[in-house]
Amino acid sequence: MAKLIVRNLWKVFGAKPEKGMAAVIAGQELVGHPAAVADVSFEVASGGTFVIMGLSGSGKSTLVRCLSRQTQATSGEVWLDEANVIAMDDRALRELRRHKMSMVFQNFGLLPHRTVLDNVGFGLEVRGVNRSAKGK
């Protein structure tokens, strides 16, 4: 069973993102409506690892932000543990971000005196999770 399911996720910027999305689908480029995430679908199995790689400015961070709704997707589906992330209210989103999904920001948001692992674990540390429990 998949832990995370993403189906047909789009993030188009601009005043009328649906118009920009339709243009991209039609193979056209619409000025003022850049598609940062265009029809992305994938699944991550429980215990699996999934890597998002790409050039600077290719939409990686926007995609990750759409998964936790830090950025609102234009359309598509995101499911985590069979819960519809797109349909979550503010309270459910806070719980999701506190307990199930987080993001380590790019280098300007990292704590320079910590290792990569310590930066990743910082959210757990703030929550008071015992260091020995982090890997469980």
Helix/strand structural class: alpha+beta
How confident overall, as mean pLDDT? 86
Largest sheet: 4 strands, antiparallel
Please report the distance between the alpha carbons of the first and last residues: 20 Å
Which of globular, elongated, flat, extended, rod-shaped describes the shape?
globular
* Unreliable residue stretches: none
Strand content: 15-25%
User: What's the SSE pattern?
Assistant: EHEHEEHH
Number of helices: 4
Description:
By secondary structure, the protein is of the alpha+beta class. The chain is 29% helix and 22% strand. It has a four-stranded antiparallel beta sheet, sandwiched between helices. Strand 3 and strand 4 (83-84) form a beta hairpin. It starts with a strand and ends in a 9-residue tail after the last helix.
Give a concise summary.
About 30% of the residues lie in helices and about 20% in strands.
List the helices and strands and how they pair.
Layout (H helix, E strand, L loop, with lengths): L1 E11 L4 H9 L9 E11 L14 H8 L7 E6 L2 E2 L5 H10 L16 H12 L9
Keywords:
136 residues; alpha+beta; 4-stranded antiparallel β-sheet; 4 helices; 4 strands; 22% strand
